[in-house]
Amino acid sequence: MRVPDTFTIAIDGPAASGKGTLARRLAVHYGFHHLDTGLTYRAVAKALLDRGLPLDDEEIAAGVARNLDLRHLDRTVLAAHHVGEAASKVAVMPAVRRALVAAQRSFAQTLPGTVLDGRDIGTVVCPDAPVKLYVIASPEARARRRHAEIEAGSGKADFAEILADLTRRDARDMGRTDSPLKPADDAHLLDTTEMDIEAAFLAAKRLVDEALAKRQA
Ligand SMILES: Nc1ncnc2c1ncn2[C@@H]1O[C@H](COP(=O)(O)OP(=O)(O)O)[C@@H](O)[C@H]1O
Ligand SMILES: Nc1ccn([C@@H]2O[C@H](COP(=O)(O)OP(=O)(O)O)[C@@H](O)[C@H]2O)c(=O)n1
């Protein structure tokens, strides 16, 4: 069922650009529901890894994707660096994407206010979203952020390895045939390389406020 007055904020961008942080802040600020769609791909990858199943069998992976419950996505368990890497491998498979996109769309279409972040929200999942943000930052800034995040949590991390992993994942996400990572034609570009979290939030809020005002006019 589609709620007549739905409003979706679509946020896309590469790994560690700050889209999740931004999405959570915006959701709290506007009282919207948030879906981190990266967690859905991570959950499929983790289920396969945990069961010792291959990451490149489309039928098996799609079966897992079709049975995924969006209400039970545990960010702490799914955040591990190697799960992100595995997620980008299952994310190239069209049958997996079809199953997950259907669930993500239904989230956006049945709740009045939503924020979704991922790689294809503005282009595929919610192409009619009234406001789309494409968040980027230099690879070095993103690797620094991920490195700091890992060191603050579980322990040691190698900066050069993280930078190499992010670069490889960018290439896989941008180079795949189905729903590659790219800005929607009507997306606002937000480069957070020189912005702290607060500055990025304020820049995004200004764009969302403009879209809300347009909707109400
Ligand atoms: N503008 C920013 N400046 C500095 N650090 C940031 C900024 N935005 C996010 N971070 C930090 O960078 C890390 C990755 O951010 P996250 O929102 O998880 O990125 P993404 O969802 O794009 O992978 C987190 O530790 C977060 O606190
Ligand atoms: N909408 C989405 C979200 C994630 N993904 C895939 O899932 C992987 C993990 O996404 P994520 O958003 O959790 O990754 P981070 O940016 O948090 O590192 C990405 O590298 C993509 O391959 C996707 O293909 N489409």
Helix-strand layout with pairing:
Elements: E1 7-12, H1 19-30, E2 33-36, H2 37-50, H3 58-66, H4 75-78, H5 81-90, H6 94-110, E3 113-118, H7 121-125, E4 131-136, H8 139-152, H9 159-175, E5 188-191, H10 197-216
Parallel strand pairs: 1-3, 1-4, 2-3, 4-5
Helix pairs in contact: 1-10, 2-3, 2-5, 3-6, 8-9
The chain binds adenosine-5'-diphosphate (ADP) and cytidine-5'-diphosphate.
Residues 15-16, 20, 37-38, 41-42, 84, 87-88, 91, 118-120, 169, 173 line the site of cytidine-5'-diphosphate (CDP).
Catalytic activity: dCMP + ATP = dCDP + ADP; CMP + ATP = CDP + ADP
Protein name: Cytidylate kinase
GO molecular function: ATP binding; CMP kinase activity; dCMP kinase activity
Textual characterization of the structure:
- The protein is an alpha/beta fold.
- It has two domains: 1-17 and 119-205, P-loop containing nucleotide triphosphate hydrolases (Rossmann fold), CATH 3.40.50; 33-111, no CATH class.
- Helices cover 56% and strands 12% of the residues.
- It has helices at 19-30, 37-50, 58-66, 75-78, 81-90, 94-110, 121-125, 139-152, 159-175, 197-216; strands at 7-12, 33-36, 113-118, 131-136, 188-191.
- A five-stranded parallel β-sheet has the order 2-3-1-4-5, with helices on both faces.
- Helix 2 (37-50) crosses helix 3 (58-66) and helix 8 (139-152) packs across helix 9 (159-175).
- It starts with 6 loop residues before the first strand and ends with a helix.
- 37% of the residues are buried.
- The mean pLDDT is 95.
- Bound molecules: adenosine-5'-diphosphate and cytidine-5'-diphosphate (CDP).
- The site of cytidine-5'-diphosphate has 16 residues, from helix 2, helix 5 and helix 9.
